[in-house]
Amino acid sequence: MLKVREVSFSYKGQGKNSRIPALKNVSFDLESGSFVILTGRTGSGKSTLLQLLCGLIEPESGRIDCEYGKLTSRASMIFQYPEECFFNPTVREEIEFSLKITGRNDYGRLEDILQMIGFELDGFGSRTPFSLSGGEQRLLAIASIVALDREIVLFDEPTSGLDARAVDRVRKILSSERKAGKTIIVATHWPAEFLDLATHMMNLVEGKISHFVTVSEYVSGNLHRERLEEREKYLLNYYKRFTRFPASEEELISFVRREKRC
């Protein structure tokens, strides 16, 4: 169980005593093994909330309680810009670093992790992480975090910049983590990629939770429409029309244009 109670956080502004609020009195309970899709516009507080849940920053007020113990040793996070997180000279050593922390630094486990993201040890093991493409770096960051085997796994825009094949790999990784009983929170602008895996939907608006519901409540429309942002309303309209979510942003945009012409 993860309990968040009246958590607020702000960043230093330009003035001497200026503060820019990022989260305002956020509260929710999350059962172990839940999979939450976290949505909201840029600047709504998604990344800040993930950093608080990972223990990277401390709340200015309120508290976060975790049944597993200290957040810094029980939660791990994949950042939006993975290239900022690599500090080992090779792909192999980057993953081995995580495996050593868990005490499972064996060749078989290393190969399993690499295979999970579609990397061959002979082809990728000796390469520097900074020689990889942006998509490959994101997959490596995900693999390194999964190798830590933490109870809570937080993802900040995990599919940003990935092609369809790489997105499918990320989905399979998240599905495997869910089956293992992990608590997962994915911050994304494209919730349709994970709705079939998730248990809950949470949306932030200007640092506050506008709704936190089960996925079934979300897709069935058992949710006050005024709580939804315009994009979400069109996503649900699309689902109700076709009983599936759009496969791409372009497909959604095309649907919105048709709706507005009617």
UniProtKB/TrEMBL annotation:
<dbReference type="GO" id="GO:0005524">
    <property type="term" value="F:ATP binding"/>
</dbReference>
<dbReference type="InterPro" id="IPR050095">
    <property type="entry name" value="ECF_ABC_transporter_ATP-bd"/>
</dbReference>
<dbReference type="InterPro" id="IPR017871">
    <property type="entry name" value="ABC_transporter-like_CS"/>
</dbReference>
<dbReference type="GO" id="GO:0042626">
    <property type="term" value="F:ATPase-coupled transmembrane transporter activity"/>
</dbReference>
<feature type="domain" description="ABC transporter">
    <location>
        <begin position="2"/>
        <end position="231"/>
    </location>
</feature>
<dbReference type="InterPro" id="IPR015856">
    <property type="entry name" value="ABC_transpr_CbiO/EcfA_su"/>
</dbReference>
<keyword id="KW-0067">ATP-binding</keyword>
<dbReference type="InterPro" id="IPR003593">
    <property type="entry name" value="AAA+_ATPase"/>
</dbReference>
<keyword id="KW-0547">Nucleotide-binding</keyword>
<dbReference type="GO" id="GO:0016887">
    <property type="term" value="F:ATP hydrolysis activity"/>
</dbReference>
<keyword id="KW-0813">Transport</keyword>
<protein>
    <submittedName>
        <fullName>ABC transporter ATP-binding protein</fullName>
    </submittedName>
</protein>
<dbReference type="InterPro" id="IPR027417">
    <property type="entry name" value="P-loop_NTPase"/>
</dbReference>
<dbReference type="GO" id="GO:0043190">
    <property type="term" value="C:ATP-binding cassette (ABC) transporter complex"/>
</dbReference>
<dbReference type="Pfam" id="PF00005">
    <property type="entry name" value="ABC_tran"/>
</dbReference>
<dbReference type="InterPro" id="IPR003439">
    <property type="entry name" value="ABC_transporter-like_ATP-bd"/>
</dbReference>
